[in-house]
Amino acid sequence: MPYQELPGKTAPIRLWADPESVEEQALGQLSNIAALPWLHGLAVMPDVHFGMGATVGSVIAMRGAVSPAAVGVDIGCGMTAQLTSLTAEDLPDDLGKLRGAIEAAIPVGFNMHKRSVDVDHLKTGMRGWFEFWNDFEDLAKPIARRKKGRAMQQLGTLGGGNHFIEVCLSTDGRVWLMLHSGSRNVGKELAEFHISRAKDLPHNQDLPDPNLAVFLDGAPTMDEYRRDLFWAQDYAKRNRAVMMALLREVVRKAFKKVTFEPEISCHHNYVAAEVHDGQQVLVTRKGAIRAGDGDLGIIPGSMGASSFIVRGLGNAASFESASHGAGRRMSRTKARKLFGVEDLETQTAGVECRKDAGVVDEIPAAYKDIDVVMEQQKDLVEVVARLKQVVCVKG
């Protein structure tokens, strides 16, 4: 559906959703963003919902400014997917052993590797291991002094919450690997350090929401934030690359002749310097993917719903963006109150996954209908493949 335009003080709010379906808290957040004096434009995706710092599903283009709280604490969170040569017929009836092998190879939740995993050894195709970690020494000193060991051991780990690793089948019976994770604890630490710094700056004292405090171009605080931000985004991409390499090793052991197509990877919680409307802007995608003309991206549903490999249509009105998933329709607390383990078992029937009280807040009913979300953004992306998980690993 075409977007609807809501009034904003500095720029209008372009909304790819029914305004009546957006909770009042989220609309208030969007109104505050639309009043920022540095704003160039604001696009809101159909998976929009209230979030910490800024609305999830928002694309915020600003001139010479960026808000660290709008980016959020999971800097670089995103998706990676990979098509295999396997088909549904190759998979065993009982997928419990495969799930167990994945969980043994890739730490989940608060767990981490006993020693760092060498990204070069796993041939992820990214720049050198030592070059990357040498840059760690230049990060914000409170983090660089005491966090390197943990950051190295967490590289290649899943975490918890809505992060997942999946084995999926496309509608034509092909087997895909897919995972969702971000910059782990080091990204959180860097984000919290810079969010606190931004709130204390004089130019941020009269904002409608202190969580929207910004750094400005030309200031040392902006240079330092961008240095740490882009390092954390690189870390998040490496984290997914290492996990995918470990996942491929698991699959190779189970299926000796398997081959793999190139990875598809996309951030959905990040900042990029881009040109829109003929102007250089900093675009914060908080729960949104880049969907430039021809860009491949990944839009997942919940742990019991379809996910999509998509190709961007380059819609300029959305700042060439699309949704990052289905989007929550209720809080985790509400989901735990409304649903129990039996509901989870019913809604994840046919999926080899955890079915216990620890993941009830991730129950499919806590999320919006992914098919409705996809219908609302037909002018932003086209579907390349529709996937449905048969194995889902969560922390």
From TrEMBL:
Gene3D superfamilies: tRNA-splicing ligase RtcB. Mn(2+) 1 binds at D74, H163. It catalyses: a 3'-end 3'-phospho-ribonucleotide-RNA + a 5'-end dephospho-ribonucleoside-RNA + GTP = a ribonucleotidyl-ribonucleotide-RNA + GMP + diphosphate. InterPro entries: RtcB, RtcB-like, RtcB-like_sf. Keywords: GTP-binding, Ligase, Manganese, Metal-binding, Nucleotide-binding, RNA repair. It is an enzyme of class 6 (ligase). GMP binds at residues 162-166, 268-269, 300-303, 307, 324-327, 394. The active site is at H324. Pfam families: RtcB. Mn(2+) 2 binds at H180, H268. Its EC number is 6.5.1.8. Binds 2 manganese ions per subunit. GO terms for biological process: DNA repair; RNA processing; RNA repair. GO terms for molecular function: DNA ligase activity; GTP binding; manganese ion binding; RNA ligase (GTP) activity. Its cofactor is Mn(2+). PANTHER family: RNA-SPLICING LIGASE RTCB. This is 3'-phosphate/5'-hydroxy nucleic acid ligase. The lineage of its organism: Bacteria, Bacillati, Actinomycetota, Actinomycetes, Micromonosporales.
